[in-house]
Amino acid sequence: MTDDRAGWLEVLKAPKVWIPAAAAVTVIAVSVGLIVTTTARRDDAVAAVGASSGPTPSASVTSQAGDPDVVVAAAESPTPSPSPSVSASADPTEDEDAFVPMGDDDLTMPVAEPCVPVPAAVTPVAHQEGVLPTATGATTTVVEPRPTQELSAFLDPAFSADGTTLAMEESGEGRSTVRLFDTATMDTVAALVSDDDAAFAWDPSGTRLAAARVVDDALRVEIVDPASGDASVLAELAFHEPQALAWSTDGSCLAVSSRSMTISNDDERRVWVHHISLIRVSDGEVVRLGRGSDPVFAPDGGLLFRAPDEAETVRLMRAVPGTYEVELVGKGDGLGATALLTLSGVDPSPDARHVAYLDRGTEGRSLRVAATDGSSDIEVASLDASRAMLVGWSPDGSTVLVKSFVGPMDVELLAIEVTSGAVTVVDVPLNTGEWIAGGSFTADGSGVLVAVNKWRKPGENNSSRMVLVTDAGARQVGGTQRGWAHSAPTWSPSGDVLVMSAGQILTRDLELDGSLVVTRR
């Protein structure tokens, strides 16, 4: 294992608030600290935004966080303990299992053991044929959730496995909120407000939600009950901000990628400044692993992620199950040292046996697919694109959807077959001033529902519409909505509910917060 990877598994056991120390060992900073587990009352941990987020025909919601009827209360933060002083041993052969001095009180704490998942296969959540706005009997309503901040827009909709709860990120004014909605009424169940970025992830069963947010200068990781909105604090990482969360396939471990609050605004969206920590769900014990972003657990318990190698080239890495020794999986050219998070994601297949990711290619970008057990990594297709972003897998895992950028606003959706490498352009007829925002596969994989945005003309507002593309051609489904789409259209597992977000409108004559366009069967 090289020096660059020697920082993995470098934190101590409970007590329980994780606070990085200033000392450094070789080239990897040794972060030592304490972890606090506590259970937060719902009225402390959940921002109660009220029941005002139900459907409204057209009225604008102008209430702001801080208004009397908008309570945005973060949970009380456990009082951090002073950072312990740890002297690094100069002896490189020191026993890693030895006790480490913890301060003037002569307490000793054993080196922490990382959370080790039990191998578990993933059974993808079954999806049924999805409702469309043009279907007989379907109804479409614009829902305007009461915002928790200015300039709100709603991102990354994700339903629970039973479809009863919808989780989203509300983003605005430089910070985020993890929002949970009752699918039947679209009332707010929980609003976990962050002082900075936020992240969330459903567990493999789709019944528990993990959320990461910043409260009182600490990254707080919580487990949220989707029915009640009750949140329990699992762990805190002092002076860190979240990038992504991932569950192990057996549901026993979480991986969180985060960055220090000292990172500049210019660098905080880049891969190289992020680190990954493991959290045991049963007791909140945290072990910091090392540099990396966008973690994805494999069914065998391994962990895949993007991280710089010795030459600072961003590559696909894998931490071996149990030992978490890091090995190189990506066989491509990697990405530059300053690679942006949005262009370097790792997207697992529905069964988590493979991941798709993008590297530099001979013509611009290369779509690669790797086995999560580390046994293979292949180039599926070379793309003539200046930039590209992953959109998602088809439900059967046969095809990957990629958003390709040829110019500043020249955007294409590409459906790429994993086995053959065949690239099909998702042909969306566009009007002047329109571009493709995103898309989602239909439940049977035979079509793609595309969100199309349009720049406003004088006297008009920004707008969006949905276009269904199949082998039979392309057709608009439903009417044009005000505001740009900020998410791909997303169906509930039963297909009975379709959600797309529409962004805020800010003009001289009109100010509207973000909304949700909800179609029901």
Automatic annotation (TrEMBL):
InterPro entries: 6-blade_b-propeller_TolB-like
Keywords: Membrane, Transmembrane, Transmembrane helix
Regions crossing the membrane: 17-36
Biased composition (Low complexity): 74-90
Gene3D superfamilies: TolB, C-terminal domain (2.120.10.30)
Keyword Membrane: yes
Keyword Phosphoprotein: no
Residue numbers spanned by region Disordered: 74-97
Name of the protein described by the UniProt record: WD40-like Beta Propeller Repeat
